[in-house]
Amino acid sequence: MPQYVGSKWRKTVALLRSPTLRKIVPKTVKLSDSSLREMLRHHGMVYVKPDVGMHGNGVMRVEIARGLYRLRMGTQDRSYSSFGEMYQVIRKLTSGRKHLIQRGVHLLRYGGRRFDLRVMAQLNPRKSWETTGMIGRVAAARKIVTNYHGGGKLVPVEKLLGSQLGHTLVRGKIRQLRKIGVMAGQAMRRKFPGVCEVGVDVGMDASLTPWILEVNTSPDPYIFRKLPDRSIFKKIRRYSKAYGKR
Ligand SMILES: Nc1ncnc2c1ncn2[C@@H]1O[C@H](COP(=O)(O)OP(=O)(O)O)[C@@H](O)[C@H]1O
Ligand SMILES: [Mg+2]
């Protein structure tokens, strides 16, 4: 079975070793009272997430809005007049588990809802990295995470990017995303030699710069069944069987 790496921190360190990828990883630090103050002061909006977690569980969005500190998680949305007051709540919510802070990306929206993209790259039977699939994930109304298992909706990338860009530019963006998938796979395998597949969560802001929000080392292949092109899911399964996944 391919290697699974749980810690987002360790996976971020692996990405930062690549001179190309390090430019598109939003600044990430370990959570503490002082690091959160500092990150908020610099960036205004950040995400706090468990070092080990999935499906968007426990992911929080923290921002300074109109002089108030705003904390969102799941469907909760609260504002606090002081940092200290908010941090007490964050401490309760995060107690006992390691958490990270990542600079927030103001994700593009589709029909008023935030979206990001999942890029799947795999070691192919010729033992080189290949991007085998890509799909967009649109958050449920007012939600801060786009995860399918958190109520997100799967939409073809062409449709999402086509709402922002013309046809030729969409083609170019897709090529860029394919390269990111391949490079992320290579960077992970360099550090973790048993990794055979990656699912890269890529967020884009209004400038359409791709940012790597997370790399999954055991990504869900079934989301690709939602694409009209059946050959994509078939290839993903064929490749994963070749490296020993059922
Ligand atoms: N830095 C960020 N900026 C904007 N949105 C983010 C950021 N980090 C995470 N998110 C949102 O939260 C979701 C879940 O975060 P992620 O790091 O992928 O954790 P999980 O392992 O739970 O999927 C992402 O798919 C994205 O929608
Ligand atoms: Mg994710």
UniProtKB/TrEMBL annotation:
Q: Pfam families annotated for this entry?
A: ATPgrasp_YheCD
* UniProt cross-references to Gene3D superfamilies, sorted A to Z: ATP-grasp fold, B domain
Q: What is this protein called?
A: YheC/D-like protein
Organism of origin is Cohnella lupini
